[in-house]
Amino acid sequence: MPKGIPNPVDMYGISPRPWGFEVSLVRNGVRYARLFGHASYGGPQQALRRAQAWRDTIVKEHPPVARKDRAQTLRSNNKTGEPGVFSRLSAQGKPVAWLAKTYLGNEEILRAEFDLADWGPAARAHAIGERQRQLGRMVGLARLHPAEEAIRRRPPPDDEATLPPKRSKSEIVRRNNTSGVSGVQFKTPRAGHPGYWVAITYSAGKGSVSRSFSVRTLGYEVARDMAIAERQQQLQAKTSDDDA
């Protein structure tokens, strides 16, 4: 979106990528991020739906901090060690007063000053106490993106349970795949060779299992269909081994 224009609710926290979608949200200094690839979820629409569902879960489970809590975060440019408490210096750079300042919103700012000439060494402690009284008037949650509230309020979609799960690597059809079935490829060892269809399945720590079907012997379509059937048998065997 153009600078200064918030993303619409549907794309809040979601960045389109050439390969899919990236979700990234920050809560209380912790970044929550996950990738949703087109290939891993069966296409762009399914990947986006999954990205939105995960984003909604993070937003609902991790609401913004209370404004009062955020106001007590010590900023990097604070030199007093107390959030919202500042010292006023003279032209010579010496402290002459302590100030307590709190922004409540809607252009309402609370401010109190304690001169060292009147309060002496106790001026700083009085400023700190005043700051705590000011914070007592601060209510509500820290405001983030306008989409946050809409996401937290809306119920989950009716079809959330039917969203496609992430595919395993063995189910992803690669760009160079010519069969439309993962793990099944057509290969030709040299020019002029009729080629063959091969089914191959990898198992972590166990290597690979493969079987080839000759186009010269079986014909193109039959060899392809047999390779696809072989691939399914390999996957079933792999699942059985994993469950054992």
From TrEMBL:
Superkingdom, natural source: Bacteria
Region named Disordered: 148-168
Ranges annotated as biased composition (Basic and acidic residues): 148-157
Protein name as annotated: AP2 domain-containing protein
